[in-house]
């Protein structure tokens, strides 16, 4: 199923349709400010397992969460003053911040880790879904390592739907990007390390 949403003004009824699916344990593909991503509700352990299986690949256990705003981030990760300033300067935006996780995050997400990736995408559709859901999305980007030069399979919603037939819905927010997020490690107090440079430079 493909569900169309327009980034300029996401339709509330359509957003609720997506959220109802997530609350029933659904797995979706949805647009972000980088590549399209797979997502499910944080409180649905079976959906998290499905997401990991659908994603596949050697890094399928490394998942992040998408929050609606910085105040929600503080519920799921430890945020000191330096990190708070970084988040405020750079989010919403194409960044994944690696932070020490709180106990509120499911073991299904953590898989033995003590840190979690946090995202607040600069994409109105992604944020509308998370806000209406009332909790973070567990998320991981669609695989980019197995498409070669056929970038349409990570940017075109119809081709993504063909590629990921096992998901419950693809949220079509228009053509996606093919640049990854910048990954920022904030797990060492007072220090910040860029683990992967993506489409945007970090602002301090």
Show the helix and strand layout.
Blueprint: E1 2-4, H1 12-23, E2 28-30, E3 37-41, H2 45-55, E4 64-66, H3 70-76, H4 81-90, E5 95-100, H5 107-110, E6 115-119, H6 124-133, E7 137-141, H7 152-155, H8 157-163, E8 169-172, E9 182-185, E10 193-196
Helix pairs in contact: 1-6
Descriptive overview:
There is one protein chain. The chain is of the alpha/beta class. Helix content is 32%, strand content 21%. It has eight helices and ten strands. The chain has helices at residues 12-23, 45-55, 70-76, 81-90, 107-110, 124-133, 152-155, 157-163; strands at 2-4, 28-30, 37-41, 64-66, 95-100, 115-119, 137-141, 169-172, 182-185, 193-196. It has a ten-stranded mixed β-sheet with strand order 1-8-2-3-7-4-6-5-9-10, sandwiched between helices. Helix 1 crosses helix 6 (124-133). The longest helix has 12 residues, at 12-23. The radius of gyration is 16 Å and the shape is globular. The model has no long low-confidence stretch (mean pLDDT 88).
């Amino acid at each position: 199923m493909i569900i169309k949403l327009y980034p300029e003004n996401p339709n509330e009824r359509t957003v609720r349709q997506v959220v109802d699916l997530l609350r029933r344990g659904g797995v979706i593909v949805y647009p972000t400010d980088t590549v399209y991503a797979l997502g499910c509700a944080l409180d649905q352990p079976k959906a998290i397992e499905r997401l990991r299986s659908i994603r596949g690949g050697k890094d399928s256990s490394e998942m992040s969460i998408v929050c609606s705003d910085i105040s929600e981030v503080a519920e799921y990760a430890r945020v000191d003053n330096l990190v708070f300033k970084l988040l405020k300067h750079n989010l919403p935006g194409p960044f994944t911040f690696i932070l020490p996780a709180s106990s509120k995050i499911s073991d299904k997400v953590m898989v033995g880790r003590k840190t979690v990736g946090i995202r607040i995408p600069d994409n109105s559709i992604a944020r509308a879904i998370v806000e209406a859901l009332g909790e973070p999305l567990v998320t991981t980007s669609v695989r980019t390592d197995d498409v070669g030069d056929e970038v349409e399979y990570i940017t075109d919603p119809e081709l993504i739907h063909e590629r990921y037939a096992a998901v419950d819905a693809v949220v079509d927010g228009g053509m996606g990007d093919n640049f990854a997020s910048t990954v920022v490690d904030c797990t060492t107090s007072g220090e910040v390390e860029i683990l992967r440079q993506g489409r945007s430079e970090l602002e301090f």
